[in-house]
Amino acid sequence: MNIFRFAGDMTHLASVLVLLLKIHTIKSCAGISLKTQELYALVFATRYLDLFTDYISLYNTLMKLIFLGSSFSIVWYIRYHKIVRRSYDKDQDTFRHYFLVLPCLLLALLINEKFTFREVMWTFSLYLEAVAILPQLVLLQRTRNIDNLTGQYVFLLGAYRALYILNWIYRYFTEPHYVHWITWISGLVQTLLYADFFYYYFQSWKNNVKLELPA
Amino acid sequence: YQTRATKDEL
C-alpha cells in the first residue's frame, strides 16, 4: 500500500459517501444519472468476485463491502425509494448504457491477461469503469446547472482514478515485474474522460461562479 | 504470486 493508492481509495470512498449523503439527507437524486450508478454497481459486482475466496487484508475486504453496499443502495434509493425516485429525471437520463456494457464485454473476451471467467470478469469491470461516467457527464451537459454536491461527486470520482495512476507509476518503479497495461490504459482513458469536466470545475471554482458546462 | 499482486487493488 502506498500513499497514492490510499489517497485514491479515500477519495473514492468520499465520492460514494457524498452521493449517499446527498440522496439520504435531502431525499433527492436530481442531476444524478441512474445509468451511471447501475454501471458502477455492475463494475463492483464483477470486480469483487474474489471477495469470499481470496482474503488479502481486512482493509481490502472492508472497502469492497462498502463499495458494493453503497453502490447497490444508491441504485435502490433512486429506483425504489418512494420520495427519491420522484426526483429522478428519466427523460434526461437516456444514455443507452447497454451500448457500453456489450463492447466492454467483447473487449474483455478479446483482450485480457488470462482467459478464465474470473479474469475476464475482472477485465470487463476495468473497461466498464472507464466509461461508466459517460451517462452522468451527458446528463450534466443536458441539465447544465450542477448542484455542488453532484459536482463534488464527479470531481472526487475522477480524482480517485488520477491518484491511482500515480500509484501505478510508484509501484512500477518500486516493485519488480509490476506491469499491467490493461489496468493502466483503462485507468488513463477513464481519467481523460473527466478531463474536460475537471477543466470547467476548476474554472468555476477559480472564478467562484456556479459550475456550468457548455452545451 | 503474480495474480495475488495484481488483485490487491480495489
UniProtKB/TrEMBL annotation, chain A:
It holds the Pfam family ER_lumen_recept. It is a multi-pass membrane protein. PROSITE patterns: ER_LUMEN_RECEPTOR_1, ER_LUMEN_RECEPTOR_2. One of its GO terms (cellular component) is endoplasmic reticulum membrane. GO terms for biological process: protein retention in ER lumen; protein transport; vesicle-mediated transport. GO terms for molecular function: ER retention sequence binding. InterPro entries: ER_ret_rcpt (IPR000133). Its main location: endoplasmic reticulum. The chain crosses the membrane at residues 55-78, 98-115, 121-140, 152-170, 182-202. The keyword Transport applies. Residues 1-31 form the signal peptide. It is found in: Endoplasmic reticulum membrane. Keywords: Endoplasmic reticulum, ER-Golgi transport, Membrane, Protein transport, Receptor, Signal, Transmembrane, Transmembrane helix, Transport. Belongs to the ERD2 family. This is ER lumen protein-retaining receptor. It comes from Sesamum indicum.
